[in-house]
Specification:
Layout lengths: L6 H9 L5 E7 H5 L3 H4 L11 E6 L3 H15 L3 E6 L4 H4 L11 H15 L5 E8 L7 H10 L4 E8 L10 H10 L4 E4 L5 H10 L4 E3 L3 H4 L3 H11 L8 H18 L5 H15 L6 H8 L5 H14 L11
Parallel strand pairs: 1-2, 2-3, 3-4, 4-5, 5-6, 6-7
Helix pairs in contact: 4-6, 6-7, 7-8, 9-11, 12-13, 12-15, 13-14
């Protein structure tokens, strides 16, 4: 979720009902070097709490040093170690899910961070179920992480080799949840409140984590909470309300100065905008147009024109 779950998007998700927030992952080496570009990935606001800062790396001592620096700077509610990222440039540096192939190093990283942090804040970890189909070792890894002092483990139900293809294996997640005494959080293919209720009721997980589904549908948190409380599915979010949030997200991104000036901010938002329009009528030409936007005014114009061209019966009146 790097490049997605920045401080602005997390604020939006929190306002829609997300409970616990985790930052984009950051390199422990960047933190130690006090690189300004790396440090900005650790930003969060108090209204996002409880929030954890997510680290990756392969040197337990250096990871522990980075964790202490983050606690001094930011005072997060917990430190989260990423052992799950499948991205090649992370794996090639012996980070993320590469450590699922090297459990001694994984253990040294987890224990190094836990020792360095001590009792200041909890330390948690995220993993995948294994490197590939021939090496699904999540239950064993969970035991190692528990023994190394991790307070919670989140598990994405795919192997590194799968990436985001195929289906998440919730049987393995369930096995892990019954294999250790610490809480296990399940992740993968959660697209509705019904999905979440089903996984909570049919597995031993203590909670669920939502990732990619929120990219185009941050309302999933509101929908899930409503479904868990009432057993009723909320009606689809009207297109006009979706556009309101898209424009709001752009305004907040520009105002945050996270990405630079207005043009730079809108360029950084392009992939986010194309994700938001998944399922929109006329999504294909809309994505082409969104791939070139460079100002807030353009987004407002695109929103107004799209709403104008919808059939009157399905168009919702809204002030963008």
């Amino acid at each position: 979720m790097a490049g997605v779950t920045d401080v602005v998007f997390r604020s939006i998700c929190k306002s829609l009902g997300a409970d616990v927030m985790v930052t984009e992952f950051v390199s422990s080496e960047g933190i130690i070097r006090q690189d300004d570009r790396t440090r900005k990935y650790t930003e969060f606001t108090d209204d996002q709490r409880p929030v954890g800062v997510q680290l990756f790396g392969a040197d337990g001592k250096r990871m522990g040093e980075a964790a202490r620096k983050i606690i001094d700077w930011k005072q997060p509610d917990f430190i989260d170690i990423n052992f799950g990222c499948p991205v090649k440039k992370v794996v090639s540096k012996n980070g993320g899910s590469s450590l699922l192939k090297d459990c001694p190093v994984l253990a040294s990283v987890a224990s190094g961070v836990a020792r360095a942090v001590g009792e200041q804040v909890p330390v948690t970890a995220k993993i995948r179920i294994g490197w590939d189909d021939q090496s699904i070792n999540a239950p064993e890894v969970c035991t190692i992480l528990q023994d190394c002092g991790m307070q919670t483990v989140s598990i994405h139900g795919r192997t590194r080799a799968q990436g985001y293809r195929g289906e998440a294996d919730w049987e393995v997640i369930d096995k892990c949840s019954r294999h250790v005494s610490i809480p296990v959080i399940g992740n993968g293919d959660l697209t509705s409140g019904q999905d979440i209720k089903n996984r909570r009721e049919t597995t031993g997980v203590s909670g669920v984590m939502i990732g990619r589904s929120a990219m185009h549908n941050p309302w999933i948190f509101r929908e899930a909470r409503h479904y868990l409380r009432t057993g009723e599915q909320l009606p689809p979010v009207p297109i006009a309300e979706r556009w309101q949030l898209i424009v709001r997200h752009c305004r907040l991104a520009i105002g945050s100065n996270r990405y630079g000036n207005e043009r730079q901010s809108m360029m950084a938002m392009r992939s986010r905008l194309m994700a938001y329009c998944k399922g929109f009528p006329g999504a294909k030409p809309l994505r082409r147009r969104l791939s070139t936007v460079a100002s807030l005014m353009e987004i407002e114009e695109v929103a107004a024109e799209h709403l104008e061209h919808l059939q009157p019966a399905s168009r919702e009146a809204a002030a963008i």
